[in-house]
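Tokens in:
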């Protein structure tokens, strides 16, 4: 929960910034008061701590670490497939991350990219393909173990949920957009499989997705995904904009977004966890969120040394591409 001292500091700082910018104490007071009332009226309380604990530390009353197969474990089996879910379970994962997408007729399926080109023998946007067309594709066609998994199909969301429940895996739903459609589909899935309330979490880079999910079903455990400098730089550190002005502008936006994630958005959405890119996590960072009742989960942790650090030093959950061997992260 946000500390009283935090609120005083944040809104006092906002007041001073507005005063300096407008030279109007009255205007600054009105704006600060409006934003405070907005936060109080429209923020969602987090789900109960014991429910969040069952999702984020399943079957571990003494505080075990959640190990989540990223995209089902994309190195060990074709990503976002039923085979990946089963392989993750066999290899000791306690959870799987599943990427939500939609076909041309609006059927929810698993696919990380906007197109099927990278992972299948097909081509084109997922949103332009009918489910029957997707089902004819080989989801293992581009995988390093394509011979072993030849003929693996793109699963629907329900097929993946049912498989994950059978394997007793915690599900991390990754939603990239379409907040209204995603919230509606997931709400129906939770109603159909109530066990999900204690065994799954809805996560997204987009705060509007999480806010809509909490608005649609406030009993769902949720998380914001974050990577500092995401707007201005690619995952390899290269700038997204070639112009100096573009780099400066997106850099400023990144600073504001990072501040908002750590001080406003998490509280507004009432999230139970923050999924942070692994390079930005430390003991102090974990403690910062622990004081606010929020779990930290790292991504993507792919070496034995890093996994040992997360399990024995940080003592927090993480996402990994492989349960079997060291592997370069796939973002």
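Residues out:
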């Amino acid at each position: 929960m946000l500390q009283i001292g935090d609120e005083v500091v944040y809104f006092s700082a906002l007041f001073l910034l507005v005063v300096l910018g407008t030279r109007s104490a009255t205007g600054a007071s009105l704006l600060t008061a409006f934003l405070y009332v907005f936060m109080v009226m429209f923020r969602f309380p987090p789900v109960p701590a014991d429910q969040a604990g069952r999702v984020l530390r399943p079957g571990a009353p003494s505080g075990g670490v959640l190990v989540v197969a990223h995209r089902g474990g994309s190195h060990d089996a074709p990503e976002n497939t039923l085979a990946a879910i089963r392989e993750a379970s066999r290899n000791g994962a306690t959870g799987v991350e599943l990427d939500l997408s939609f076909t041309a007729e609006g059927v929810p399926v698993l696919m990380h990219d906007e197109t099927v080109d990278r992972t299948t023998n097909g081509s084109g946007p997922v949103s332009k393909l009918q489910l029957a067309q997707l089902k004819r594709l080989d989801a293992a066609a581009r995988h390093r173990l394509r011979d072993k998994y030849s003929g693996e199909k793109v699963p629907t969301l329900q097929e993946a949920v049912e498989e994950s429940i059978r394997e007793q895996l915690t599900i991390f739903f990754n939603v990239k957009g379409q907040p209204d459609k995603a919230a509606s589909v997931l709400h129906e899935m939770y109603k159909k499989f109530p066990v999900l309330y204690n065994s799954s979490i809805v996560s997204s880079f987009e705060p509007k997705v999480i806010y809509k999910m909490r608005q649609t079903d406030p009993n769902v455990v949720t998380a914001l995904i974050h990577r500092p400098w995401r707007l201005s730089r690619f995952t390899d550190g290269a700038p997204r904009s070639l112009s100096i002005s573009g780099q400066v502008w997106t850099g400023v936006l990144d600073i504001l977004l990072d501040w908002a994630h750590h001080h406003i958005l998490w509280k507004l959405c009432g999230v139970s966890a923050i999924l942070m890119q692994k390079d930005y996590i430390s003991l102090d960072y974990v403690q910062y969120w622990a004081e606010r009742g929020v779990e930290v989960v790292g991504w993507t942790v792919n070496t034995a040394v890093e996994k040992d650090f997360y399990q024995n030093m940080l003592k927090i959950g993480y996402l990994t591409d492989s349960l079997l061997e060291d592997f370069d992260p796939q973002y």
